[in-house]
Amino acid sequence: MTQKLIAELKRNSDKAQKQFYYKYADMMFLLIYRYVNNEQDAGSIINQGFYKIFIKINDFSYINEQALIGWMKKIMINEALSFLRKKIHYVDINENYSNSSFAQNIAENNLALEEYYNLITGLPPDLRTVFNMYAIDGYTHKEISEKMGIKESSSRVYLLRARKVLQEKLLNHGK
Asked: I need a labelling partner for 117 at 20 to 30 A (CA). Which of 10, 30, 148, 164 fits?
């Protein structure tokens, strides 16, 4: 089914574009919303992302749906990062933070997934972006530094700060 849909997209079928959009829009919206934390901005970014997907679909070779989703996520995240770079001023940071026991605290807390999501979306935009890229979407500090125009060490500090803020929120959650 998906492979046929891709073939129709490559023929610029309006019907296929609409079907494709409705099939994947909710998934991509949740991805983008994690970064921008604003429904209106996420909606605009989704539209720009799907426009890029439709333009670049001829460059995509279908292997399976998982590969397609990964390819789309990269495009969508790049669109979100482009948007955020215009709104957030990142600076290079060189502070020493010790690694926290953030993962251990998460395991010990019995929070629902939705509560974790709310904690993450509550982070300041600069920290949230780096945390999402590294901890959730699997980017390396080198990739983050290249995409955000900061040093790798700054990416690490943003991540550590995000973890520290999340850890404090988790510790205060039960109080």
From this structure: 148
